[in-house]
Amino acid sequence: MSDSEKVRTDSAKAWLLAARPKTLTGAAVPVMIGVALAWRDAQDYVAGTFKWTAAVLCLLFAFLMQIDANFINDFFDFANGNDDVETRLGPRRACAQGWVKLDSMKRAIALTTCLACVVGLPLVFYGGLEMILIGALCVVFCFLYTTHFSYMGLGDVLVIVFFGLVPVCITYYVQLHTCTWQVLLASLACGLVIDGLLLVNNFRDRDNDRAAGKMTLVVRIGDAASLALYLGVGIVACLTGLVFWLNGHVLAFVLPLIYLVLHVFTYLKMKRLNKGKALNLCLGETARNIFVYGLAVTAGLLL
Q1: What residues contact 72, with CB distance under 8 A and at least 6 apart?
Q2: Most CB atoms closer than 10 Å: which of 59, 88, 139, 276?
Q3: How far is CA 50 from CA 296, 299, 300, in A?
Q4: pLDDT in tens, 96-121
């Protein structure tokens, strides 16, 4: 495949590829679940409790931060020599392929970071001044993930926090100015489901990461434990959904079982393939499964 020949440097197509639109499902799902939880609990919605503007701002902020994270990852991995075109097993990256110049990527990172801050700032009117602290933490850890924590095996913790706890709970908080233990459990389940994407990514890259001294969780615990963990995050997430059943939302527990079936099939494929670029199939399936989970939980809460 000659993508580098088909994509002109700094073209619109180059930037679209650099933004990695397929990853936006991981940004959308936590906000979807947070919105559904808030809508469910807004008993006086007709009186104006639920604020659609705040919900849209949360979604746009999540999208921009995801794109920002992708740009940062693309830039620093190439700048640090971790994106070797010859040995890379995952999808091609913009800087490594020459689709985007390093200076252009620097400017894009600055622009998306600023845009995310501008979009997120009005949330202060809905959630209070604490939204500034939350936004600042999102920006800081967006950089620290690629530059430090992913090398220390802490990437999975950050995924659970910033793709589960923070977006679900904050989306709920800006609507109702509180956060219940049920919302916390739902946000934890969401973070676990999305962490599956990082697990399969790191499982595919484990040999290259080990050689580069990148001590991801997969590298630290080994192949068998990593496969078991991938399966386990999906099972635990669905079991956590029992909280919905206990609160009278049976469908919010039952519908995500569709996700669990798909997750198990992806796990079996991941176990069978074990190595190489073929694991990108599992990466794509995991992204699909995450979106199915988000739709299932959202539908179960709203129906």
Answers
A1: 109, 142, 143, 145, 146, 147
A2: 59
A3: 21, 18, 19
A4: 888 999 999 999 999 999 999 999 99
